[in-house]
Design brief:
This protein is mostly helical.
Length: 336
Amino acid sequence: MEGKTVANAYELARYPFLPNAEEYLRNMGFTLEEATADSVVARARERIDLAIKKKKVNLDLSNNDIEILSFYIAMLIIKMLANNWLIHTFARAEGERAKEAFSTESKQAVCRIMNQLFRLNLQPVERIPFVLNDAEMLKVEFAAPVVDYLKVNSQLGQIDNPKLALVNNYLYQGIIYMTRERIIDLVKDQFSSLIKKRIARVQLPTKLPEPLLEVINEYKEKIPKPKIFSSSKKFEYIENILKSNIQDGRHRILWLILPPYLVNIKHLSEDEAFEILRSYIDRIGWKEPRADRIIRYNIRRARRIGLMPPTLERLRQTHPDLYTIIVESIGRHEVS
């Protein structure tokens, strides 16, 4: 029994948003005063500070209980602050940390985590019952019933993701066989979303310990004031893109720039954004058989993960080739 508890604590320290985290905390019998011990609060503050600074949140497994409790205390602080920017920033940072840990898990752990989170009925593959070349055979590590796979795909809003289409995976007698890369494609945007939902479910106590109130008051001064993006000129270049005929870089424009702008800056509905993007690709003459599915997928993904479009300066730093294409296509005087 002791070995099972330690293994559970280890996994929850890596993924403290798993469904059985709350049961684990109840079984620990911790009090809020114990959870706000100096070591726990210090780690909670570190997690929040790293997220605010957009730095990598490290994984500290020197004490699993502190790691689990500090995640809970960090969520409590963030819930009290009720700042959407901070919720999104924290969830994104912790989601990236979880995604990195997930990519190196054993096959058994991947299946256990996937089945806890999504009820996928994923199993490790020991033998492939059909012929593949040696290189491909080594990559296939997991299998799940096709019915469960499609159900989870739909629940996660991934049904239009071309990488996850059945035609791009291995099927045999009602079972889908997948690589680790494909499993990561399925969940890579989900950890942050799960953390946001977990924060939303946090129950605030009637009275907070004084040390925690002090921390909350400190963060009220730290977190940036909300920006009103709709009136900003930072994204005027995107309106010019919608009026222009840019042929190169269309795929990146269609997932990185236009959908986030329409749903998260202009706050259009999915159907309104779809109509604009559909008209846009028709006007530039982009003949893509899966256009409608790709557009829907990118709109839903942008809304689900809160993706914001890059400013022109940010685009110059992260995608210099696309920046050059856009500037040359719509004219330097229009984007300065």
